Amino acid sequence: MAELMTDRSSPPTLGAVMRGIRSRNGWTLKEMSAKSGIPVSTLSKVEHDRLTLSYDKLQQVSQRLKIRMSDLFAEDEEESSPRVTGRRSIGTVERAARVTTDNYDYHYLCTDLRQKRMIPILTRIRAHSASEFGELVRHQGEEFIYVLEGRIEVHSEFYDPVTLDVGQGIYLDSSMGHAYVVADGFEEALVLGVCSSADDGLMDSLMSLHG
Question: Residue 41 pLDDT > 80, yes or no?
Fold first, then answer.
């Protein structure tokens, strides 16, 4: 009985989400493969939770099926009242969704949990100046950044730049323009960030920054 209750409260996997999309549209695996550009064999493994999709492939599915990226991370809302799910996720770099940009290497952690209130991201920073970084970044919500390796400079729209060493962090309003760059004397820096928002669509907001 305890095992059945645990299964019922567990959030759907990517495989369950993909099966649901296919079922709602009445598509066969072959039809969904043609529409999404993902091979039938790969789709079958994803639906049976034997394989996951990289960020690039998830973006491809989102664009070709004309659905929001966040829909692939969406949890079914069967109940409107708060409930204790007991859910958890162990985040590892190996299982992270990887996104590479000119300034950062992102590793989105715990992507098996849908509709998270917080999005943990391990980020390697490469840009060495605000001019190299380019336009300041803005998105909804708030965030906390904690330095794990190296030293960083935090540039923001309303404050003078501040330098953070290993073991130091900063909490800020994400809608304020901001940028993290590597401080002098270091080639790269590694930070752990947590983005949070009370509004739906935080994942979409973050993903839109990557083009």
Answer: yes
